[in-house]
Amino acid sequence: MANNTADHPPGNSVAEVDHEGDFGCTTMQLRELMELRSGEAVNKIVECYGDVQGICRRLKTSPVEGLSGNPADLEKRHTVFGQNFIPPKKPKTFLQLVWEALQDVTLIILEVAAIISLGLSFYHPQGEGNDHCGQASAGVEDEGEAQAGWIEGAAILFSVIIVVLVTAFNDWSKEKQFRGLQSRIEQEQKFTVIRMGQVIQIPVAEIVVGDIAQIKYGDLLPADGILIQGNDLKIDESSLTGESDHVRKSLEKDPMLLSGTHVMEGSGRMVVTAVGLNSQTGIIFTLLGAGGEDEEKKVKKAKTQDGIALEIQPLKSEEGAESEEKEEKEEKEKKKVNITKKEKSVLQGKLTRLAVQIGKAGLIMSAVTVIILILYFVIDTFGVQGREWTAECTPIYIQYFVKFFIIGVTVLVVAVPEGLPLAVTISLAYSVKKMMKDNNLVRHLDACETMGNATAICSDKTGTLTMNRMTVVQAFIGDTHYKSIPESEAINQETLEILVNSISINSAYTTKILPSEKEGGLPRHVGNKTECALLGLVLDLKRDYQPIREEVPEEKLYKVYTFNSSRKSMSTVLKNTSGPGFRMYSKGASEIVLRKCSHILDASGQPRVFKAKDRDEMVRKVIEPMACDGLRTICIAMRDFTTEPDWDNEADILNDLTCICVVGIEDPVRPEVPEAISKCQRAGITVRMVTGDNINTARAIATKCGILQPGEDFLCLEGKDFNQQIRNDRGEVEQERLDKVWPKLRVLARSSPTDKHTLVKGIIDSTVGETRQVVAVTGDGTNDGPALKKADVGFAMGIAGTDVAKEASDIILTDDNFTSIVKAVMWGRNVYDSISKFLQFQLTVNVVAVIVAFTGACITQDSPLKAVQMLWVNLIMDTLASLALATEPPTEALLLRRPYGRDKPLISRTMMKNILGHAVYQLIITFTLLFAGEKIFNIDNGRNSPLHSPPSEHYTIIFNVFVMMQLFNEINARKIHGERNVFEGIYRNPIFCCVVLGTFALQIVIVQFGGKPFSCTALTIDQWLWCVFIGVGELLWGQFISAIPTHRLKFLKEAGHGIPKGDLPQEVLTEGADEIDLAEMELRRGQILWFRGLNRIQTQIKVVNAFRSSLYEGLEKPESKSSIHNFMSHPEFLPLYEEEPRVPTIDEGCVDIGHLPSSSRNGGGGEPPDRSLHSHEFPV
């Protein structure tokens, strides 16, 4: 007998606990028991406890009523058996983060230089005053000034400390934010248990040993337990064992249920026997934690994913053993080109590449600066002046060399864009926080940014596009088609009795309709929404389902065939109480169940023969009109058995049925969806609907949503026709065939999970069209797991979604609403734009500062911007600017352009025009001030001043003007698409305003009171006004630049492309490496290996360390997340509305089947009107 029920002792109400006496078994005994499998486990239970009831008695719980929920009892269970919680890894302390920030090579070089400079400044040799050391000591006016030589070294050290603290604080706050997100996810995960005889949902962490938990299709088990009663229960244990086959669970053969495994079919109840660190998942975690750092690296795969309590990642690919064997074979064949490594997200890859290129340039510039300075000094001192190197002059010369070295390092510091990863992190973290408010719970950080590049969305119908509040609105009962729910008197009473019994018993007992929480509100639907609609029909017929369920409790159900994606029906068998034999109730998709019906109940409630021609007529007259109204049709049927058949032979059991009725269930389209879909279409994103419903219903809903537009040439296919068109004679999917179908496909109906996965994979792998596609997928069921995992961004439903779907997803929609996806697109594009704004600003500063320091040093032997000033500029443009520009809120305007795609360069031509244009302005001003500033302002010349001379007004003005220009240019950087009004929406970003004003205030303090450490001297009001005036000139100059048409400037190059596939060196394409790090490849080409340290992106990716588990999700996923390799190098975008209207196909109302192209009419079996589907026809 398949429906196993353990008999429970009669009259055992809520078990009372004797608080003095301990439980009848220890944690260790239960742990050992849970380590056994199948037969061994059954024998052990019989041997030690008698049966599962024995375990329940020892754990002082009732299999029917559950625990009493008494707080003292629960507390005691916590102490004895532990809590259902796996402690996360300890966060890094602030000091550890400081130490990590100090590892930065650039900072180390600066520290060394500063310490040498400090040491030399305290060393005064005897020959100090001698003339024969040349100009080295000339110009020092008094002893006091000479003593102040230590200040520069100390100031550099101080600046380094500031930079380190800022970096560490950023890391720390990121980690803290991430922990908050983590705990929120943990709190949201609930599980159903029975306490005091009531079915309640409690947070996973509150489950205790002895709880009776209800498990159903789609659950992720939160603790170990033993089955008490189960219906057709199948579990996917691949996350623990690596075996992909689903394991059937039953009391006789294998009652052991393990935490971290997924329920793939059926339902049941279990008694919890191990929680937290004592569960099988917990034991594995303990092993991982104990093995230390090295072990950790080996078994990184089993880390918690985003710390959701008690989840475990598969130790092998979730597709499991079979696919792994296949993969191994394939890998051997294509060892050279197999890129299934973890890859960085699209943006991450482009940034790394760009940072390396900028860093290389900076390194060369700084080396050249140092060499020129030293050569100039040596030639001038020993050649032109003809001096000799004497022992007493050595320290003075060395001091000069150290000064040159410090100048070189500062050029490098300014050149390396260490603010990049910081900007990315801040932007992503800020977006993730704000997206919470827009009902997007982001689980993997890079998904947020990838979403901005999305070109296609494959959406579910139920619950995403529709309200998922199902109601029966039409019915066909007793040969009559009722367009609205009939009165109960109108239906034959026998038929009504059978119908009510069938619906009440043949549905999950966890599905209920509860009274509304608010007065006058709609009743609450709990559980499966389709079943809720049927139960609603029972209530509408003035009957009640509850008494029937009480009369036939779950324990009395003889056999249950639960719903799954291949059956598409559910059946429940009861043993007849009055006599021998059995009765089976079935329900399911009408076209599937009707095919298995041989009789139908007529108006008098008697079965009459139901032939194939009757069925065709019914489809034509009842089912198609219902589907045309956008209704989902469900057939309810039954069958009586006189003798006991072979219950495992499903084909025979689910046959020869008698149809009771067919109902049409309406799931209204969400009112906000059509508007959201038209926004997507304007933004250049194609929305496709993939649903299990029949093609007519799907087409009707797609038309209401606006996915299908009147007059468009589109394809609506059913799963089987889709497969016929894309598979060859051997049944294999061919990319070429798929490329002919997907560009026009808008609706895929009656699709299986495999179809969804095939479609998503096909679109992602396709090379048709201008750019590679970036695909987002929504899903709620367990069967959507593979497609969600394969997609670039997977959205799971927060309310209706199963744990398996949430597990496979990147973003959880907490309100199950399609509009939230549009918000995610907006935030994703905003992240991309924020990074571009920051780059535009940063690169302008980089170009100017490097050129000024370089030429200044070469011509005047001294950088106009001192080391400490450079560090301050660096702080402005890195930390503060990334904070200001990365927190711009998104606007609707972001949805008016096409997606960037994978290969669009980060720095567009317009941005390059802005960068170079502003650099020209700043360089002209700076050099004018450097070489003619003393005449303009009528002050002393600051050039060629000797070592340790006091700060000059001349150089202070240069520094001040430089900073003012950066400040005003920061406002220009807010726009990157050549907009004129740079102030637009500036008040919507208070952070930006605060940063700009704060920097301005600090600059005043530094200049007026910075003195020797900052090489500044106080300026007069006039001088300040001139500095600000020159700064404001940036805004005017910005207007001039935006007036120059970009397309005229052919010489401008874009930068920051993704990396084309052809460029990958062979050794990278072989297996073995953990991740393809583009930076490393660049380095290998250049052979500048030590540059790894200088490319601070490597170190500062640690800023993102708090998000490690989410950013580097790829480790757990067998597939790559979003490849940045397989794309073309020159994107060209189509204008937004390039798609020409073709064959007029849809009228606004119901589709007139005759008008559709044959492909739509027969679900795609025939040829579409135009078969020459060349790639250029499809705007992507």
Give a description of the structure.
The chain has 1180 residues and is of the alpha+beta class. Among the domains are: 27-88 and 208-274, Calcium-transporting ATPase, cytoplasmic transduction domain A (Distorted Sandwich); 346-432 and 826-888 and 908-1048, Calcium-transporting ATPase, transmembrane domain (Up-down Bundle); 440-465 and 671-816, HAD superfamily/HAD-like (Rossmann fold, 3-Layer(aba) Sandwich); 471-666, Calcium-transporting ATPase, cytoplasmic domain N (3-Layer(aba) Sandwich). 45% of the residues lie in helices and 12% in strands. The chain is built from 41 helices and 27 strands. Strands 11, 12, 15, 16, 17, 18, 19, 20 and 21 form a nine-stranded mixed sheet that branches. Strands 1, 2, 3, 4, 5, 6, 7 and 8 form an eight-stranded antiparallel sheet that branches. It has an eight-stranded mixed sheet with strand order 9-27-26-25-10-22-24-23, sandwiched between helices. Strand 2 and strand 3 (198-203) form a beta hairpin. Helix 15 (419-437) packs antiparallel against helix 30 (818-860). The longest helix is centred in the C-terminal third of the chain and has 43 residues, at 818-860. The radius of gyration is 36 Å and the shape is elongated. Mean pLDDT is 75; it is low at 6-21, 136-146, 290-343 and 1060-1180.
Characteristics of this structure?
1180 residues, alpha+beta, Calcium-transporting ATPase, transmembrane domain, Rossmann fold, 8-stranded antiparallel beta sheet, P_typ_ATPase, magnesium, transport, nucleotide-binding
